[in-house]
Amino acid sequence: MRDSSRQQFMAEMAIYMPVNASFIRHASVWVDDAWGFMAGWNFFLYEAILIPFEISALNLVIRFWSDSVPVGAICAACIVTYGIINLAAVRWYGEAEFWLSWGKILLMGIVFSFTFITMVGGNPKHDAYGFRYWNNPGPFAEYLSGGAMGRWKGFLSALWAASFAIVGPEYMAMVAGEAKLPRITVKRAFKAVYIRFGVFFIGGALCVGIVLPYNDQTLIANQGSGTGAASPYVIAMQNLGVNGLPHLVNALLVTSIYSAGDAYVYCASRTLHGLASDGHAPAFLKKCTKKGVPIYCLMITMLFPFLSLLQLSNGAYVVLSWLVNIVTAGGIIDYIIICVNYIFFWRACKAQGVNRREFSYYAYFQPWSTVFALCFEICVVVCYGYVNFMPGSFDISSFFTHYAMVFAAIILFFFWKIYKRTKFVKPHEADLVWDRPAIERYELTTLDQDTGFWRELIEIIGLKKKMSEGEAVSF
């Protein structure tokens, strides 16, 4: 319900006012310029820290084949190739991402097929295990303590993991201003997210629970080992005696993880360029090369991958845990920002007599579903590091990584609010017109060019000629 509600009101705002970096700019125009400043920098840090996370994860997966590959070599190779790809024109970045993305689709197809075929007996052991592991040991694992409380803590741990993994709608909102016929294509894209959540996230979680019990000894032994063998799919394949497939799955994981890191370099650098364009970052960051690459923004972004070198002294698994904690908090804060944006937007529409039912996309059960989502997100981000408050469990590194982004967001907001003396936007003063006239004029000139969602998606990521002409794409 939380994700469905979040998707609805995010879609309503993005389709009503499809501008670049929509939820960041919505925050500045409809809530408070300080809120937009905090939103922009939080999103930049969120994306930038995901780069070393992906490099650390890549190291874990590669070590499935051999522990002799130097960690520093993997980090250096990623940093250098990410820099080269993102220094090229936008067109080449888009083309690289397009082909790498096919690996992700193939990977999901393989693991779904593997789950179905093996659970009905199509495996070397001819073991039709079906839903055996849902009964023994069961769906809920105990965590930190025993009994019902332990199972509740296990559920909370899974909830934190889901908060880290389930993302996507905010990225469609970010590129809404670059889409052709945004009120048609972006609307389609948001509707397609329900399928994505249902198939990839829920389906993937169900498959993991089907193929492997949570108390599998190999899984428990490898959780902190820092090797790719900790993947539940790989362990399940090895347990069933399936040869060859674990190596293919691992290879596809390598391409997927590498692709994700490359995408975050691109998004983070463009987000920083957008901050500079809006006056929320130093003006020199607006400089672009002839190919449209925001060179100084890219240079600053490329400093973050060096955090992956922390693995050399602390181990990949430990560093990965730190980065997951930081990134999860940043992602939850993004959604808190979007919730607040919508509440202010809803108040402005009501105060100015704007009939939301006439919008291209109308979110139901408002504003109460947004209020519920906001309260839920706040509870998650506050309780995220609850383990540190249990007797004898406080750990400085754990506490810092769980709450660093929360403290950073608070500091960023009040810094800009005091420095610029900003004020919250009153409902009757909110600019609900903004870029709508220009957007409507543009759409009138392209009404006969509705090319469909998938072709439009390809255009957005940079394979069409218009993206190869070298303009910078700012978030």
UniProtKB/TrEMBL annotation:
Annotated Gene3D superfamilies: Amino acid/polyamine transporter I
Alphabetically ordered keywords of this record: Membrane, Transmembrane, Transmembrane helix
One cellular component term from this protein's GO annotations in UniProt: membrane
Keyword S-adenosyl-L-methionine: no
Topology of the protein relative to the lipid bilayer: Multi-pass membrane protein
Listed transmembrane segments: 43-65, 71-93, 105-122, 154-172, 193-214, 293-313, 319-344, 365-387, 399-419
Location in the cell: Membrane
Entry annotated with the keyword Nucleotide-binding: no
Sequence ranges assigned to domain Amino acid permease/ SLC12A in this UniProt record: 10-426
GO molecular function annotation: amino acid transmembrane transporter activity
PANTHER family noted in UniProt: AMINO ACID PERMEASE, AMINO ACID TRANSPORTER (EUROFUNG)
Protein name, as recorded: General amino acid permease AGP2
Organism encoding this protein: Talaromyces marneffei PM1
The organism's taxonomic lineage, starting at the top: Eukaryota, Fungi, Dikarya, Ascomycota, Pezizomycotina
